[in-house]
# Entry
Amino acid sequence: LTPDDSLRQEISNNARVITDGEALRKAIHQERRKGRRIGLVPTMGALHEGHLSLVRAARKECDCVVVSIFVNPTQFGPQEDFRKYPRTLESDLEALAGADVRWVFVPSATQMYPEGFSTYVQPPKVASPWEGECRSGHFRGVVTVVLKLFLLAPADVAFFGQKDFQQLLVIQHMARDLNVSVDIRRCPIVREPDGLAMSSRNRYLNNVERQRALGLFHALQTVEQQVADGVRDTRGMVEAMQKTLTDAEISRIDYVTIADAETLEPIQRLDREAVALIAAFVGKTRLIDNCLLNV
Ligand code: AMP
# Structure
């Protein structure tokens, strides 16, 4: 299947695949006029249980759910995996078939970025460290496409995963700063039974790497244990996370930190809500994970 007009089909429970943004906007306005509450779940496809948990959260709170599937070129760097990013539209639609979704929005790249496109959103300050430093231009692409999605799919509420913790903060700040009237919800990280955070990129991992990838989760568990033991100084925690990653033969670490959960500035002591953040390569695959630390 390719995202063209032939995709405008019923998939189940009235879910309609829409490739045209204006048609989607119209359909949503029609429902809103009837007083229906609309929930938006933006994704890049290759759907897994993490995505489906967002859909369920949206369905719980909203009358009509729209899921967007768009691998957004502007958030990938030149050395990143845009070309090989998994595109599995057919099985994505199957995964959504039982989820009581009203619309699946599958725009083409040329629809989102037509010839002559040149306007980008400048990301907020919270986009600068961590992912912002490692992936130059990434959040500029993210906030631009998310704002476009908010305009094409004018929902009451949009659902994002804590899995991309910094992205969520960045989007919250963008929405607040630009007076976007979409409420942003944060949904918990869905993990595999052994703890690995679900990710579309996990499918790049071979068996050995899949095992190594658990190092990220174990590193976060180390910190949680330290917090439970009453440790409040973060230096030992960061060292313990680094050691857990190295022991798991994860040597290429982009960052490991414990940061203020609102500003993302690193903190020395756990005296406010904090988040442990990790980004590291397992083989050629870059993975991220995090956990909130409440004291
Ligand atoms: P993506 O398709 O990777 O751009 O992700 C789309 C949305 O799903 C984002 O809001 C992610 O944070 C969220 N998401 C991805 N993985 C998970 C997960 N394991 N648990 C919860 N949400 C997730």
Observations:
- Residues 3-13 have pLDDT under 50 and may be disordered.
- The longest helix spans residues 138-152.
- The two ends are 49 Å apart (CA to CA).
